[in-house]
Each structure stands twice: as C-alpha cells, then as structure tokens.
Amino acid sequence: MIESALFYIFLVLTLIFGLFVALFRSPLYSLLSLLGVISCLSVLFYFYGATFISFVQLIVYAGGILVLFLFVIMLLKLEPEEKSGEHPAFKVLAPILFFAFTSAGIGILFVQRTEIPKERFIMPISDFSFKLFTDYGLPFEAITLLLLASAVGAFILAKRKI
Amino acid sequence: MTFLSALIIVLLKIGIIIGTVLTSVALMTWVERRGSALIQDRLGPNRVGPFGLLQPVADGLKFLFKEEIIPLEADKFIYLLSPLLVFVPALAIFAVIPFGTTIKIFGYEIEPLISDLNFGILYVIALSGLSVYGIVLAGFSSGSKYPLIGALRSSAQLISYEIPMSLSILSVLIAADTFSLKGIVSSQSGTSFSVLPNWFIFSQFIGFFVFLITMFAETNRIPFDLPEAEAELVSGYHTEYGSMKFALFFLGEYAHMISASCLITILFLGGWNIPYINLTGNLGAILGIISFSVKVGFFLWLFVWVRWTLPRFRYDQLMALGWKFLLPLGLLNFIITIIIKWGII
Amino acid sequence: MILEGLILSIFLFGLGFITFLLRRNLILMFLGIELILNSANLAFVVFSAKNQNWEGALFVLFSIGIAAAEAAVGLAIFISAYRSFKTSYIDFFKILRF
Fold first, then answer.
1. What is the number of other CB atoms lying within 10 angstroms of the CB of residue A24?
2. Cα–Cα nearest to B166, from B204, B220, B207
3. Strand locations in B6-153 (E)
4. pLDDT of residue B198
5. Domains of chain C: which residue ranges?
6. Which range is least confidently modeled, C39-43, C57-61, C82-86?
7. A22 and C27: CB-CB below 8 Å?
8. β-strand partners of B110
9. Does C81 contact chain A (CB < 8 Å)?
10. CA-only gyration radius of chain C, Å
11. What pairing do the DSSP bridges indicate for beta strands B103-105 and B108-110?
C-alpha cells in the first residue's frame, strides 16, 4: 500500500516537472526541471523492476548529459526568453496538438485491453549482461563506435580554428 | 516482524547513523585544527573546553548568529538551493554503508546498515556524479567571476576523476562477484595461504593506489584543492556564501570526506573484518564496528596529514594526472584482475 | 501500474513536443528532444515489465547511449552556431532562406 502510494507520488511529480520544463522562461530553471524529470523517472524504473537501468539512467543522463547542458548554459550566459519572439499561431496550435495527440494515445490504450501480470519481475543482472554481450553484441560495438565518432566530431565542431 | 516495528527500527537506525555522522563531522573540524597545529609545531585551539573540544560548538554558534547576506546579482532560488545540493548527496551515501555484522537485541536481528541494496555500488557512483551539480550551481548563481572560475575548475576535476574511480571500483567488483557493499565486505573475510588476509588492498594494490588518489580529488582536498585555492581564487565557489550556508558547504565537505574513508575501508581494507579472527555473535559484531571505526579513523587522519604536508597541484598538472596517469593505471589493474580471475582470455 | 506508466509516457511525449514547438531558444528545443527520448525509454521499460522479457530494458541502455552521443554533437553545433550568429534565437537563423 505504501509502495503504490509512493509510485503515484513519483508519477505526479514527474508530470509536474515535465510541465515546468515546458513553461519556465529561464533556460537554467528548465534544465533543473529536466533533472527532476530524469531523477523521478529513475525511481519509476526501479518500481517496474528494472533496477540496473534506473541507476544507469542516473549515472549517464543526470551525471553526464545534463552536466554538459549545464556547462553550455553557464558558459554562454543564456538569457531568459522574452515573450515577444513567438509567432502567435504557435501559442494556439501547440496546446491543441498536445491535447489531440495525448487523447488519441490514451484512447488507443483504453481500447486495447491486454493481460497485466501480477508479480513484479526483478531484472537479474547476470542474464542481462550475458545477453548484452552475446545476442546484442553488434549493437553494443556499434554504440561504442558511435560514441567515439561523436566525441571526435563534437571536439572538431566546437574548435575556433581548425 | 510487523511493518510498524520494521519502520521504527529503520527510523532509529537512520537517526543513529546521521547523528553519528554529524557528530563526527564536528569532531573532524577539531581534529583538523589540532592536527595541523601538531604538524606545524604549534598549539591549536585549547581554550574553549578541555583540549579545545568545545571549539566546534563555538564555531557552530558563531555560524548560527551571523547575518545572512544574499548578493544583489545572485539568482536567489538557486543560490539558496546549492548548499543543500552539496550536503544531501554526501549524507545520502551513508544509506548503503555496512558498519558490522548482525546484532541480536531483544529477539530482533538488527543489521547496522540502513539498506542492503542489491546495487549498492551503483548507488554510490550515481551519488558521486550528482554531487557535481551543487558546486556548479553554487558557482554560477553567485553572480561574480571568482566563484564561476572556481566552479568550472572544480566540476572539470570532479568529472575527470570519476573515470579512474569507476575503473578501480570495477576491478573490485570483478574480484568480489557482487554489486552489494555487504557482499564485497563478506568476500574479504578469511585468509588465503593461511597467512595473508583476503583484503583487496593486497591483491589489487594498483587499484587501491588509484582509488585513494581519486578520493582525494573527489572530496576537493589538498593536493587537489584548486577550486578553493585561497591565494588565487579567494575561496573559489563558496566565496559569496556566509554564515549558515557556508556552514552547510563545510559540513558537506567533511561528510563527503568521512564517506570517502568509509568507502576506502569497505572496498579495499575489508570493512569490519579483523585479520585471523572469526567474528561471531554479539561480541563479534561490536568488535567489527570498532575495527571499522579504527580503519575509517586512520584514513581520516591520512586526509588531514596529507593536507598539511603537500603543496597544491596546478590545474594542468591536475588534469594530466587524471587522464594520462590514473586512467591507464586503472585500465592496467582491470586487465590484470580479469586475467587472474578468469584465466588468460 | 502498466496503464498509468503508459499514460505518463504519452504525456511526457506531448510535453516534450510542445517544448520543442513553443520555444525560440535552441538549447530549450534540445531539452524538449531529451524529454521525448526519456518518454520512449519509459515506454520500453513499462512494456518489458508487462511482457516479463528484459530485452526491452536492454534497448533502453542503447537509447541512453544514443542520447549521449546526440547531445554531445548537438551542443557542439549549438556552440558554433552561437559563435556565428551571436545569438541563440532561431528567428535569426534565416540566412539560407530564399
């Protein structure tokens, strides 16, 4: 009972932080709200049984990617947005699109009823890593190449003089 | 046991552990000042209580009564949030640290650790990654140039030294075969060849060396003290902070130091294991907690000793040390561990 | 629990989508993209919990890796664009227009 109460609290908290990402004017506050979203999502992953993935999300996303964003915002001293830059059509169009899309998605969910398991199945780490290196070896090596290429590419793109 | 009794026991454990940590932090300030006095051949604080032991109390009262100043250029919400972001991860690491074996009191079996997470080590690495945020936001939200430069240097240092730290932790995990901290301590019990204790400091001394140096860097202590370098940066990222906010930074740094010493003993020195003695029952548990405290105390004294002995690194020397020296050493240790544990691949 | 997770995933996707549309600052558009990626990760984890098959969560690992690579390159592009245009508002990035 406590567990499902905590689950719903973090669900609502994720939604609130997501709203803050969309609505805050200053880039720094939006970034901190995104940090809140990612931490709450990490807790939600733990509730679904994917324990390893929840920690990986905290270490990589919150500890690596968002720090990169924070450095860029900090060093370039980006100003909070002013309201006059937007095209007026977008202010009306975007909430309409949001509600249309979300209600369509939720409608599909309620139409398709499928079997929901009762027990929470905790991910065993040894099976996971075994599959990662044998069945999914090719995507794994491809990701390492991709990260190397992006590191070199980011370095060259951000230099002042090549 | 019922839910209510389990809840009360956990809350009691949290209270005891946080109380002990905060008292140790206050005691560490006293140790630092008397220890530095000993090394520099002078007396330290000796007026406020017997041997100056009430000096931390006097310091705490001073911090409470000072005026709270917020600079005009500062971003107020983040300026007030940053000391918390530094202090809370340093305390939160104590949720997974095992202090000893099980104690039996009044029919309850109590383990002196708050939670035995299956992935305790990943929790520790995640919290070390999250502790960058408090420092960067503190420097950025202060609205002046010295904190900004100090925050940049400190975050670059913290992020660079996370990688050799993770590599040395990884070698320990391969040797211990488990992610939970209690399992790592248990796998270091007993002796091999009936002479040498099974501690990982003997079987992975390169990893121990790398981890010790990265722990100095992660806690921003001398010789990796450049973010707070007094002569150059007017106290770095906590320049614009006074009274209770500065006290929170201070407490956070010492709490981080204590948790780093606890991690070094758990990962490399066998936690609560005493060599050649098999610890059982209540007496064994108490002896285990005492031996854990002695080892942690040794590393805390080492932190103080190194601070007042060595000069500080320059920034490029610091970066070169992290990337060009510790990272290859960590990889070397990793490869040697794999070869010894699983045969030549 | 499964249903609530999927509804949250759809809402986060929608929020990321309108962040991407409504913002004029390039960095904030990147934040919207990251939010969309996270909603997809949540959907992966929810479905792998439903089918009790952990290969879905394995894909989240690759998705996080791709997000890291894309964030690095995107921020590098942003920095060089900021240097050329001296601003980060996309209203001013219109040299290639006819």
1. 17
2. B207
3. 103-105, 108-110
4. 79
5. 2-90
6. C82-86
7. no
8. B103
9. no
10. 17
11. antiparallel
DSSP B101: S
Closest by alpha carbon to B20, among B114, B110, B109, B117?
A: B114
Chain C nearest-CA distance from A101, in A, is: 7
CA angle A57, A58, A62 (to 5 degrees): 105
The three-state secondary structure class of B23 is: helix
Q: What is the DSSP string of B175-223?
A: HH--SSHHHHHHTT-SEETTTEE--HHHH-HHHHHHHHHHHHHHTT-TT
Q: ipTM of the assembly? A: 0.91
CA distance B55 to B45: 7
Cα separation, B2 vs B154, in Å, equals 47
Distance, in Å, from the CA atom of B36 to the CA atom of B155, rounded to the nearest integer, reads 27
**Residue B305 clears pLDDT 70, i.e. is over it:** yes
Judging contacts by C-beta atoms under 8 Å, the chain A residues touching residue B123 are: 55
Do B221 and B305 contact (CB within 8 A), yes or no? no
Contacts of A46 in chain B (CB under 8 A): none
Q: Taking residues B116-136, what's their average pLDDT?
A: 89
Residue A39 contacts C, CB cutoff 8 Å: no
Say whether residue C46 is in contact with chain A using an 8 A CB cutoff.
Answer: yes
Q: Give me the helix-helix angle, C55-85 and C26-51, nearest 10°.
A: 180
Q: Among A14, A18, A81, whose Cβ lies nearest the Cβ of C24? A: A81
Pick from C13, C48, C72: CB nearest A68: C72
How far is residue B146's CA from residue B236's CA, in Å, rounded to a whole number?
Answer: 6
Angle in degrees, 0-180, between the axes of helices C26-51 and A2-23, rounded to the nearest 10: 160
Q: How many helices (H) and strands (E) would you count in chain A?
A: 7, 0
CB contact under 8 A, A62 and B129: yes
CB B112 within 8 A of CB B13: yes
Taking the complete model, does pTM exceed 0.80, yes or no?
yes
Asked whether C51 and C28 are in contact (CB, 8 A), the reply is: no
Contacts of A71 in chain B (CB under 8 A): 136, 152, 155
Residues 16-35 of C with CB under 8 A from A: 16-19, 21-25, 27-28, 30-32, 34-35
Measured in angstroms, the CA of B206 and the nearest CA of chain A are apart by 25
Residue pointed to by tokens 């689950």:
A7
Asked if the Cβ–Cβ distance from B133 to A28 is below 8 Å, we say no
Amino acid symbol at B17: I
The topology (CATH level 3) of C2-90 is Helix Hairpins (1.10.287)
Task: Tell the residue number behind the tokens 């010790």, with chain if given.
Answer: B212
